[in-house]
Design goal:
Mean pLDDT: 95
CATH architecture of the largest domain: 3-Layer(aba) Sandwich
Strand content: 15-25%
Distance between the termini: 12 Å
Shape: globular
Strand order of the largest sheet: 2-1-9-10
Length: 311
């Protein structure tokens, strides 16, 4: 039997209204949102269900919202007996994956995400930065691009999302410089991202302290399902290693394409994206067209997936 992988989306997948029909359709999903409201100390359900969009786009709300929605969908899937062979999450989605993998309780994951999101938002306000997706440029040209752009400031590769899509992050001037240079290195398009900071770059260094302190307070258990980590693109079940990698993740690139290649190389042929949107399924199609990926983002897609999957 083919192996199965569960994927959890990160920032950028959010949309107003997310989670509402899941909560209406499944009691276990509604319980997740109720728990989230309690843990966070504010009504994340109303932010997800009603917005407004500009509020949901703020990092301090976006990240807890995405993790809560993913956890609610996951609670439904797991309550119906779905068990993957690997889990992985993109950036903040790694916290959702750790809940699914049995490393963190949902409440502890949310406490960590709240601290992470606040620290990243504050970091972005104190030290403004930018991010841009470089589309169509060969990955082996990235070092050359970063060297050229670094003349204008700090810059780093933030996400290796798929062949031909890498995100750069850093000082505004350096990211703009990268956008000017990239076409000469083969890029077809450069898309500036609507984010509140230079995520996964050295500009996030100051956010590590706040998160590290909280990481030490929270219980990490050995993973019941291996977690393919962003920083290494390798699986781990070791709680100490996973804790260490979560701190490093803030200033390290998300090795998403390599993570997916590890999983497909180990026999994973059927993936499910658990949470808002279908960004990760779209990326996976660019990485390996020989595997399937199903998005579970609302009541309809969840019911269809559960109807077609053998638990």
């Amino acid at each position: 039997m083919d192996k199965r992988g569960a994927l959890f989306p990160g920032q950028g997948s959010q949309q107003v209204g997310m989670g509402k029909d899941i909560c209406d359709a499944f009691d276990v999903a509604r319980e997740v949102f109720e728990e989230a409201n309690e843990v966070l100390g504010f009504d994340i359900a109303s932010v997800c269900f009603e917005g407004p969009e500009e509020k949901l786009r703020q990092t301090r709300y976006t990240q807890p919202a995405i993790v809560t929605h993913s956890a609610a969908v996951w609670r439904v899937l797991s309550s119906e007996g779905y068990v993957p062979d690997y889990v992985a999450g993109h950036s903040v989605g790694e916290y959702s994956a750790l809940v699914a993998g049995g490393v963190l309780s949902f409440a502890d994951a949310l406490r960590l995400v709240k601290v992470r999101a606040e620290a990243m938002q504050n970091c972005g306000e104190e030290n403004p930065g930018s991010m841009a997706a470089i589309i169509g440029m060969p990955e082996d040209k990235m070092a050359e691009l970063l060297e050229a752009a670094s003349e204008a400031g700090t810059i780093a590769a933030a996400n290796y999302n798929s062949p031909g899509q890498t995100v750069v992050s850093g000082d505004v001037a350096a990211v703009e410089k990268a956008g000017e240079v990239a076409p000469s290195l083969g890029a077809k398009r450069v898309v500036k991202l609507n984010v509140s900071g230079a995520f996964h770059s050295p500009l996030m260094e100051r956010s590590i302290g706040d998160l590290s302190a909280m990481l030490e307070e929270v219980e990490f258990k050995p993973a019941s399902v291996p977690v393919v980590c962003n920083v290494t693109a390798r699986p781990s079940t070791d709680p100490a290693e996973i804790r260490d990698l979560l701190a490093k993740q803030l200033v390290s690139p998300v090795l998403w394409s390599r993570s997916m290649r590890f999983m497909t190389g180990d026999g994973v042929a059927a993936f499910v994206e658990v949470g808002p949107g279908n960004v990760l399924c779209a990326l996976l199609r660019r990485i390996d067209r020989g595997v399937t990926c199903t998005s579970c983002s609302d009541a309809k897609t969840v019911k269809e997936f559960l109807g077609g999957v053998k638990t």
